[in-house]
Amino acid sequence: MIFFRNISIKRRLTLIIMFVSIASVLLTTLAISVIGYKTLQVDLLTQLRVSASIVGDRNAAALRFGQNDMATNNLDTVFSAQPTIVQACLYDQSGKTFSSFTGKDFSGSSCPTEISGISGIGADRAEVMQPIVNAGDKIGHIFIESTLDQLDQYIKKQITIALTVASATLLVSYLLAVNLQHTISRPILSLADTARRVSIEKDYNIRAKSLGDVKKEDKNELVILTNSFNEMLTEIGQRDQQLKTQNVALEKARDAAEAANRAKSQFLANISHELRTPLNAIIGFSSILMNQLFGTLGDPKYLEYAKDINDSGAHLLDIINDILDLSKAEAGKLTLLYEEVHIGKAINKSITILSDRATKGNVTITTDIPKMLPSLVVDRLRFIQILLNIISNAVKFTEAGGKVHVSVHTEEAAGQPPQFVITVQDTGIGMSQEDIDKAFQSFGQVDSGLNRKYEGTGLGLPLTKKLMELHYGAINIKSTLGQGTLVTLTLPATPPPGVEYKAE
Amino acid sequence: MLKHFAKYGLALWLACIAGFPQYSRADDNKEYLVKAAFIYNFVKYVEWPDAKAISKQSHIDICVAGSSGLSGAGQVFKAASTNKLSLSLVTENNWHDAASHCHILFISDSEEGKLPEILAALKGQPVLTVSDIDGFVDNGGMIGFVASDNKIKLEVNTKPVHAAGMRIDAQLLEIALKVIDR
Fold first, then answer.
1. B 71-130: CB under 8 A from A
2. Considering CB atoms only, which of A58, A62, A94 is closest to B15?
3. Domain spanning A2-105+113-177 has what CATH number?
4. Cβ pair A398, A426 in contact under 8 A
5. Does domain A336-492 fall into CATH 3.90.226.10?
């Protein structure tokens, strides 16, 4: 069967059908031949016995009256036309040879001298020895010996027939097999072809040609196979698609996680730097003071140094507060204490706090606050923190002689809930879009480094954005370099659902 | 057992005679034993009309006319007798009597001169006439013994046989040296 391994199913089916056909023809012929041969052996013996009886009876008178020349004539007449008869012998009552016939091709033969032996078929001869009974008297014996030519001819004929039929069968079964094997091979080949195409093209939309719908009682395994194969392809295709989607999602998640990780690392590095800078100043100036490097205490320089130490400490505290707030906000642990706040009052309070710095920088702060404004529900301290942050930034980045304008109004766009809009417009240095993006990152100060011109923790805007988001609001910055900045804060006019707040 | 032995013994004995049909004129006794065996065998190849049919007989007479060696062969027929059919050799010189009780009449060569008379007397009678007289069948006899190649051969004339309402089996005619049938 090794021979079978590497040939196509088409040829295999054809060969199987042909083998089976030939085998059945040969076996049938063999069986018929064996049965025929046996029957023919029996027939041959029967024929010889019948011949012996007839010839014996016919020669009864010759035997009784001792006319052996007549008997010889008789034997000649009967047997000379039968080429398969080797010899025929008549024996009288005493068992002596009475007369005989010898076939012309068997001149060497001679009659057995004794009346014995059983009738039967030997290697190449059939023999019959039987008594001649006439009118109740046993008057002698007859012996007939014949060749097995009849049997040999039968075998030859059978072989010829078998070979002829086998050849015809070979041809017919080949033609039938070639035409019938399609019903089995075609679906399988189609499946194999489909499977190959799918594996090469990686296209799970290819389908094997269906042989029909599977019915419950369907016994055609090929139909079931084809349909199952197609179902499998559909499932693989779906899974493939699902996997791709999941992969994309996972990649995004991975990228986000990596970005977050990078941001944390950056954040940590920035914190270290930001914390170290004021600490260096504190340690440096306090060391000067401690060692009285510029003479005894009382020198006006020391006052300046003490102020530097104080500033640095305050700055450090700001930074740490901002970090704590930011990390609290990011960890979701910043809880807001909602209460009704008068928005105008809150703005004015913020401006009052910053007025010193504005005066120092020669920046004018103007406001446009409508008299009748509904109160806002927010965390008062955090809201003022937001306002301080935005307005102080505006003051900080506005050159001397510049202006900062703060205004409030309510807005009610169609289909949107009403909201407060607070804008802070300055005439400062402005920012590019890149700068704006950077400003919302932690420690993303536009001008970083030791000798930066503008102070700040670099956490103000990120923290403001976080706080706005916690209030369900948003912050938006629009700016052009050198042409000032517009910061827009929007907050929902109605308190967030489910929030308990203190009335004013 | 005894009967069986007797029959087998006779068969063997007859076979010995028949198996060696060669004889010489000098050995008359042996020649007539063979002829007696032949005559016994005629019973099996000849059919007599109803009144004399063998199947209806329990005894038949084989008659001898005149004197010859056959007269001394009575033992042959005695030995050949069975329960069903006994045979006896009877001398009969009255031809009219012969017609009534003989199945077979052997005419010895001593009666050659009376042959026309005998055959005339038996004409149309169901008696098988047998003789070794020369030209027996040509003169109206039924079965004649002739010597040929040192063997006893048969000649048959079926005309008187048929005229007497008898029949001779074809096998007997087949082995006959000469058959006159018209």
1. none
2. A94
3. 3.30.450.20
4. yes
5. no
